[in-house]
Amino acid sequence: MRFIAILLFFFSATSNAFEPLNTDDAGTVAKNSNQIEQYFFRTASHGGGSAGTVDIITPGEEYFGGSGAKAFPFTYTRGVAENVEISFGTTYYAAPRGNYSPISNKVLALKWRFAEDEDGKWALAIKPSITLPGSPQQQVAGLDLALPNYGLNFIGSHYWDSVEVHINAMYAKSLYNTNYAIGAGPPENRTNILFFSAAPVWRVMEKLRLALDMGITTNPPSTEQYLTNYALLAAIFSVNESLDIGLSYMRSAANMGLVLGNTGLNASRSEIGFTWRF
Q1: CB 115 within 8 Å of CB 91
Q2: How far apart are CA 73 and CA 55, in angstroms?
Q3: β-sheet bridge partners, residue 238
Q4: Which of 39, 48, 102, 135 could form a disulfide with 93 if both were Cys (CB 3.0 to 4.6 A apart)?
Q5: 3-class DSSP state for residue 191?
């Protein structure tokens, strides 16, 4: 039995979200300002036994391989208007390695905050994106898909003094070269991917925020259950106004009972890194 942990189309699926969360926020980088997000993540599968294989897909980072991965996702964002930002993201895979480029998931995205409260209590945004195609060898290894992908994410955020809540609803077209296998997965994958998530973020101290991120998404293998679930815990420490350090731990499985109970087939992702604004 094989299980796919989670896909965000890529977009972050494909462009990176509100690191180290999977859920994006409606905020945009200030006009003429820049932001760099550099993270490291490690994935692992659990509950499959010595002969079991768990395919792992992490939101914002498509990975279809049959073993754990170690990778460095990077995103550069530029504010081009008071309510518009553009971004480019990619991922360098330290593991697995093979006869293919370790650089994959090259994503171009634009976020437009099209509505917001005058007092800054809420905001709405949309984020279209396109993922450039990888090579057939990358698709076979499970690092990338060998056709262009595209997606659209609808983002809603509400802000209070000590807590903020972000909600995402995304559709992605996850195309691939049908002449080649996709990692360790089945011959056919679903190409219409839906993703829904919510993430409350609490400011528990002046420089410390804690977050709970939960969601549900389409399970790509057409031979398996249609939906899969995840839950993620994160902490964000603000060193100063320009630099944040974040870490998160995620579990995903066929249903939320397996996620919260840490039983049966499930996958995990541990992530740490920084966000620098300049």
Answers
A1: no
A2: 19
A3: 244
A4: 102
A5: coil
pLDDT for the residue numbered 33: 97
Determine the CATH number of domain 34-277: 2.40.160.40
Amino acid at 193: I
Q: Which amino acid is at 152?
A: L
What's the pTM value of the predicted model, to 2 decimals? 0.89
Where are the domains positioned within the chain? 34-277
Q: Which of 212, 198, 201, 199 is nearest to 238 (CA)?
A: 201
Rg of the chain on CA atoms, in Å: 18
Enumerate the β-bridge partners of residue 266. Answer: 46, 253
3-state secondary structure of 249: strand
Backbone angles phi, psi at 88, to 5 degrees: -130, 130
Low-confidence ranges of the chain (pLDDT < 50): 1-16, 50-54, 56
State which amino acid sits at residue 119: D
Angular region, 47: left φ>0, alpha ψ -120 to 50, beta rest: left
- As a whole number of angstroms, the distance between CA 193 and CA 10 comes to 9
pLDDT of residue 17: 59
Question: At residue 146, what is the residue type?
Answer: A
118 CB-contact burial (10 Å; exposed 0-12 / middle 13-18 / buried 19+): exposed
- CA–CA dist 101, 242 (Å, integer): 33
Which among 116, 21, 138 is positioned nearest to 73, based on CA atoms?
Answer: 21
pLDDT reported for residue 111: 98
CB 216 within 8 A of CB 186: no
Contacts of 264 (CB under 8 A, 6+ apart): 47, 253, 254, 258
pLDDT on residue 113: 98
Q: Which residue has the tokens 């955020």?
A: 157
Terminal Cα distance for the chain, rounded: 47
